[in-house]
């Protein structure tokens, strides 16, 4: 009798280079793989499933969206195991192709928000998160999608309630990712917004990526008073604090937080966000972070290592 090798989801993740949450998302959303279930309910993947997952990854690396790749695979248009895979029909090669695919995914999310359909909004977010690792999608898909619904509201196409609902849907996914990336041990970095600032999706996304780097993060949330920043810094003895500065109106309150923290024992005080960099510095010696969340998290992690 021929015995077929099967793999746990952890082993499948190691063999394909895909995170287990991403594999589960592709299974749930697109049905590209149907793992065997053990009596205890655990997923097991055979060699055929591994090849399908690798094919999906290969298509995404070539600029396809997850939905287009899944459709092509399930329709038998892709020879599994072959490397000669062309971009989807009608797309331009290279970077422009990838940009066009990203634009379509974001447009789908905005259209779902404008339709006021919770199911379509959740499906659109599923597609965004299924397009790659969290780090691969956060700067190019997830946060731009959040910004796009703000633009739709400003243009009068989206009501306030629908805009809040779509933003909250993204916030729930970020909160779940933050919880899933929990790091044992002491708090190393505090992340939050200054008094009066409420646009927190970027700061929360940053906290998720930094946690996924293995850094102990405490996310404080929006509208954190100056004295609360100082109190939590003293209680946790955090080595760094990152203040999100989203709008020009946030700069004054953020500067107050920076000044208060620098009087204390926080060794690294950093600012990030659209209004945190590119203009006059909030204070001397403050670390100004890159705009992209992944790059900003790398800068903070590196600054911590240098102080070790």
SSE topology string: EHHEEHHHHHHEHEHEHEEH
Average pLDDT level: 86
Biggest sheet overview? 5 strands, parallel
Percent helix, as a range, is 40-55%
Count up the helices: 12
Give the radius of gyration.
Answer: 21 Å
What's the CATH topology name of the largest domain? Answer: Rossmann fold
Number of domains: 3
Q: Which structural class do the helices and strands define?
A: alpha/beta
Spans where pLDDT lies below 50 across 5 or more residues: 83-96
- Strand content bin: 5-15%
Secondary-structure arrangement, i.e. CATH architecture of the largest domain? 3-Layer(aba) Sandwich
> What characteristic shape results from the CA principal axes?
globular
Class of the largest domain in CATH? Answer: Alpha Beta
Number of strands: 8
With strands numbered from the N-terminus, the spatial order across the biggest sheet is 5-4-6-7-8
From the N-terminal CA to the C-terminal CA, the straight-line distance is 57 Å
According to CATH, the homologous superfamily of the largest domain is Cobalamin-binding domain
Note down, in words, how this protein is organized.
The protein is of the alpha/beta class. It has three domains: 69 residues, Orthogonal Bundle (Multidrug-efflux Transporter Regulator, Chain: A, Domain 2); 85 residues, Methyltransferase, Methionine Synthase (B12-binding Domains), Chain A, domain 1, CATH 1.10.1240.10; 125 residues, 3-Layer(aba) Sandwich (Rossmann fold). It is 55% helix and 10% strand. It is built from twelve helices and eight strands. It has a five-stranded parallel sheet with strand order 5-4-6-7-8, sandwiched between helices. A three-stranded antiparallel sheet has the order 1-3-2. Strand 6, helix 11 and strand 7 form a beta-alpha-beta unit. Helix 3 packs across helix 4. The chain starts with 5 loop residues before the first strand and ends with a helix. About 5% of the residues have low confidence.
């Amino acid at each position: 009798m021929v015995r077929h090798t099967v793999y746990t989801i952890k082993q499948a993740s190691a063999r394909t280079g895909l995170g287990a949450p991403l594999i589960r998302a592709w299974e749930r959303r697109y049905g590209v793989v149907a793992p065997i279930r053990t009596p205890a309910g655990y997923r097991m993947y055979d060699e055929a499933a591994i090849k399908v997952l690798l094919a999906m990854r290969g298509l995404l690396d070539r600029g396809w969206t997850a939905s287009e790749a899944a459709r092509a695979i399930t329709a038998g248009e892709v020879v599994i195991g072959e490397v000669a895979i062309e971009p989807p029909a009608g797309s331009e090669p290279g970077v422009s192709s990838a940009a066009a695919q990203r634009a379509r995914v974001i447009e789908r999310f905005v259209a779902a928000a404008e339709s006021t359909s919770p199911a379509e909004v959740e499906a659109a977010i599923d597609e965004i998160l299924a397009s790659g690792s969290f780090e691969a999608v956060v700067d190019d898909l997830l946060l731009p999608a959040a910004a796009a619904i703000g633009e739709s509201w400003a243009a009068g196409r989206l009501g306030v309630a629908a805009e809040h609902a779509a933003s909250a849907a993204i916030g729930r996914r970020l909160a779940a990712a933050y919880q899933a990336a929990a790091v044992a041990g002491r708090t190393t970095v505090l992340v939050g917004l200054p008094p009066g600032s409420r646009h927190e999706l970027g700061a929360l996304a940053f906290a998720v990526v930094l946690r996924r780097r293995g850094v102990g993060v405490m996310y404080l949330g929006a509208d954190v008073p100056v004295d609360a920043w100082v109190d939590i810094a003293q209680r946790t003895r955090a080595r760094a604090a990152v203040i999100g500065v989203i709008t020009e109106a946030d700069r004054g309150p953020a500067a107050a937080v920076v000044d208060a923290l620098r009087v204390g024992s926080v060794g690294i005080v950093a600012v990030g966000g659209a209004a945190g960099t590119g203009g006059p510095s909030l204070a001397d010696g403050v670390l100004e972070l890159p705009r992209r969340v992944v790059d900003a998290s790398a800068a903070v992690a590196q600054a911590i290592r240098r102080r070790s």
